[in-house]
Amino acid sequence: MKPSVTGWKSTTAAAFIANLCFEGAAAQDSPEPAADRPQEIVVVTSNREPSRWYNAAAAVDVVAARDQLPGFRFDSAELLAGLPGVQADSRANFAQDTRITLRGFGARSAFGVRGINMRIDGVPLTMPDGQSQTSSIALDGVDRVEVLRGPMASLYGNAAGGTIAFFSARPEADQLSATIAAGDARQRRYQVRGEWAGEQAAARVQVSQFSTDGFREHSSAERNQLAGQWYYRSQSDIELLARVDMSRDPDTQDPQGLTYEQWLEDDAQVHPVARLFKPRKSINHKQASLSARQPTSWGSWQTAAWLGTRDIEQFLSFPGDDENSSGAVIDLHRDFSGANIRLARQLGTLEWSAGVELAQMRDRRKGFVNEQGVAGELKRDELGQVQNRDLYSALVWQPSDRWMLQLGGRYNTISFDVADDFIQGSNPDDSGSLQFSEPSVAFGGSYGQGAWRVFASVGEGFETPTLTEMAYRNNGTGLNTDLQPSQNRQAEFGWRLERSVINASLTAFIVRSRDELVVDQSSGGRTTYRNGADTEREGIEGQLQWQLSRHWDWRLGGTLLSAEYSAGPYAGLRLPGVASENVYSQVDWRPLAAPLELSLATRYRGDVASSDSNSEIVPGAVTWDLSMRSERRWGSWDVVFWAKARNLTDKKYVGSVIVNQSRGRTIEPAPGRQFDVGVNLSHNW
């Protein structure tokens, strides 16, 4: 019987919310389940009894990577498929990260991820200013993904419209494995992984490479990654987890967006500026972290520390040679680091916790003229620094199995400072600094009996502009000090059902935001922002996981969302980049007595507006993916073979949009039908 994510949900959801700034946890198998019940996995978190998924006072869902369709694991959308509230749009442009929005948060992002807090094994992927990238982690090393939505997510601090947390799993046996995968557009992936499991310690090291020519001209990419994890548990129950993540993208080409007319004419073409200015990006990312935790007689403690560097060279699709221009070749070196600590005290049915989180990033940024693909004259040289200093506390009270109440607050201080070292001629001193001090609060509860439960929560959070978003003005130079944090208030009410072979949930939510940060103009890779008018987002999201029989499973996730400007010049118009409907269905079939699994996934994303003015509405689409996976064992050898047809019907559709692209190049086309295959060979000792 295929393992189900029901067990993951049963044990991690409440801890995911209550632990606030630390999600590292060790996993162990529960006793063998009954034949008619999905396998459950217990996750040990501090000294609290494992909480069932439906006890949580917030909308939280989780999916095991094994339950997603097989694939290259190059695009984070592969791991987020079917999670309610999440819109993950694949750009098919490897120079840019997957476009991720969560209940409309993150919609303004022209690149990377904004407005969503992201973590890997409890360590932030999100920088202090609120920007994130998923390309820096080896996604094929992720074991499961948890998504927290709604008011409780605001307790993660700045830009926490929601939280996406990736988790690895402790190795359980000594194993050496190799993976080879290939597909259309000359996609190739190679990986070698070694795992060792001892009585107290375990470790994993993997090296991988992905490359592709891209399905459009000028869209080739290569990514080389090294990832390592070391797990340790002492006799006094101190748990340690050390991680090292390295990623190098030597030369990722950017085919640029297309106009709507160009997309209709030929969705595989590139805009002429891609040939003229040769836009591309190179990234070198390194990050290390150490997490520790221990249950004690009085409660528990947990802490984490991390540091890293990120080097980026990016060529944009314009010259950037105006008198006061900042250039069109970006040379960025970033250093970042941080630490947090949390203490929890258990007092009968009440748990009180408090903690602190400190983080900083330091960007040395230079800009040069783009002389048709060659870096020319220096136009920018500055040092930007961001620091956050956060204090937080939470109370969780569970007087009985039927009731759980939760209250939390966080006080956030974020400071920005830019020192301009390029002051020449008419180019002025663009130095500047800003500091924001903002609270975040949330309250929620849940009640239920038997198989059903209801929950509700309310809260208030905020989102500052990122350092990159502050970098440009439409008119003039220097730090855009006109930008201010947006404020949001959220409320949600939900219902859950959990039985032996089925679980389901339905959640209604509403979000009111003031001074929403939105794209003002986006052209040639340069994007400027402004505080837009107020926005309203309200909707319904649901999920269903149903083990129809021993051979059939069905997973369904969907969101209906109304996201509009509620005041200002665009009042009544849709928030760009956000689809009103997102639905995902996946049916898995395991033929009797055959080591084979067939899966059919259906996705529907509704139409989206590409700009604030809603002058262009990009059509939605229904797409189908079909996959096959077979696992066999011969003695100490395991072989896994998979094959997948993506976009089975060869549907022509838009993968993503570039919001408010001032020259109309808003369309990022999706590939047509593609075929991928892969094989993994493992030897166990």
The structure class reads mainly beta
Question: What is the end-to-end distance?
Answer: 25 Å
Alpha-carbon Rg, integer: 24 Å
Give me the oligomer status: single chain
The proportion of residues forming helix, as a percent range, comes to under 10%
Task: Give the helices and strands, then pairings.
Elements: H1 6-18, E1 26-29, E2 41-44, E3 59-64, H2 77-80, E4 86-89, E5 99-102, E6 113-114, E7 117-120, E8 123-124, E9 131-132, E10 144-149, E11 162-167, E12 175-183, E13 187-197, E14 201-212, E15 221-233, E16 239-253, H3 260-265, H4 272-277, E17 280-295, E18 299-315, E19 329-347, E20 350-370, E21 375-397, E22 403-420, E23 432-449, E24 452-463, H5 467-470, E25 486-498, E26 502-514, E27 517-523, E28 526-531, E29 535-547, E30 552-565, E31 581-589, E32 596-605, E33 608-609, E34 617-618, E35 621-634, E36 637-646, E37 654-657, E38 667-669, E39 674-684
Parallel strand pairs: 7-11
Antiparallel strand pairs: 1-2, 3-10, 4-5, 6-9, 7-8, 10-11, 12-13, 12-39, 13-14, 14-15, 15-16, 16-17, 17-18, 18-19, 19-20, 20-21, 21-22, 22-23, 23-24, 24-25, 25-26, 26-29, 27-28, 29-30, 30-31, 31-32, 32-35, 33-34, 35-36, 36-39, 37-38
